[in-house]
Amino acid sequence: MTRHTGIDTSFLEGLLGYNARRAALVIIEHFVRGMAEFDLRPVDFSVLSVIHHNPGVTSRELCASLNLLPPNLVGLIRGLEQRGLIERQPHPLDRRAQGLHATAAGIELMQQAETRASSIEREVATRLSPQEQAQLIEMLQRIYLN
Amino acid sequence: MTRHTGIDTSFLEGLLGYNARRAALVIIEHFVRGMAEFDLRPVDFSVLSVIHHNPGVTSRELCASLNLLPPNLVGLIRGLEQRGLIERQPHPLDRRAQGLHATAAGIELMQQAETRASSIEREVATRLSPQEQAQLIEMLQRIYLN
DNA sequence: TATTGTTATACTCTATAACTATA
DNA sequence: TATAGTTATAGAGTATAACAATA
User: CA–CA separation, A70 vs A82, rounded Å?
Assistant: First the structure.
């Protein structure tokens, strides 16, 4: 429980926020390294995954479901489009909006990237059984969902 | 499980990294609001808490135990010192280093702030029993400790 | 009036290189 | 030669205000 440095951080180690942040940073670090070959940051992966599984999704819907701000999505979307991974199509009902669709190349990339993501998860959670991992995710969702 | 937006994020919701980050952000948001009255950001709280519980700790030791970079700690330490919450004293063994100590005011503030931190934790984890909360923290530590 | 996507911009957080004084 | 603390600065991430086109 105590650190190898000899410094007592026991109060912080009792706080959910401290532990959640430390764990998230370690996991994300692994994720970044593992996704480097696909040139996808975590946020790129998340956005592309949601587009992949929700053809025609709009920017606003992406922002709402991933907790992003519209101005910060503009450059990201443009980048994915320029790489030929997604396309913008006119929205069938709302001429202000644009439906986002993964291209064939985008779908191909995401199939590989999602497989890679799953293997990264297994590597980073080697000290958790599959049951514990599922339980951990469920408890985290009880914190942030609603 | 599915979101109220009608957007399918089920793949992301199966990833530990995604859930850990979303939960950490929600917890930290609560923490920031709750600590505003003490004018302490999460990183200020962490640093002050470690100094409080480890009188004479050095900047390097703070960096190692909290995973911070030395240049980013300089302004923070100076700020806490200018607010009269900590003092720098010559290190007894190493004249390059400085021992950091909480002042009476710093100790007083931290007693209140740590009490407040604990109550914020209870608010943010209302949907987890104390047992679940302890189990969650233990599992998170199995990910980031080593 | 409100909303979608956008631009411009500011602010914060994090990271790197290099210096000084001591070890 | 290496380490503690520091400076300066660059880069990434996150935030707000305001606009044109459309609802």
Answer: 19
